[in-house]
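[Automated response] Your request has been received and processed.

Submitted sequence:
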Amino acid sequence: MDKRRFDNLLVQVAKGSEEAFEKLYYETYKGIYALIYPYFHNSLDTEDALQEVYIRVKDKAHLYKKGTDARAWLFQLAKNTTINLLRDKYKLRDVTSNIGDEEYASKDSSWDNTMFILMQKCLDDDEYQIVIRYILMKYKHKEIASELNMPLGTVLYKYQVALEKIRKELK
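Generated structure:
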């Protein structure tokens, strides 16, 4: 999705458009899932967080400034929401101690996490972020370089290295 279309969708969401919200969700949920999965390392918590992210998108869309980078805004909102959820989760865990949440949280849901797990296993954090942004979020390498504050050549190199690592793991 190009920047202008993404920007327009977010502006329409701020105005209350359910249709724009649905389009935004379907265009971005895989990338946001991939972004927040490493924080939780399980499907159930990641899906709960994903739902919370999109609830906050609806609630906070009016704060988005038209013409700025809508994808970066969404990524930052997702990251902040995830961190807040983790803080709350660990506070609750400290208070309730061992109630058995661990067993429930470790069960896999319908999401196929094989690729995320494989990528986490074989890629460093920069490589993981580059691959997710390029493949799932459809960023251009130049945009990734800008967002991650890296030279374009470094992003291109790390992307190629990451793909090679993934190919080796899949063999």
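Summary generated for your ticket: The mean pLDDT is 82. Residues 43 and 108 are 6 Å apart (CA to CA).
If you did not submit this request, please reply to this message.
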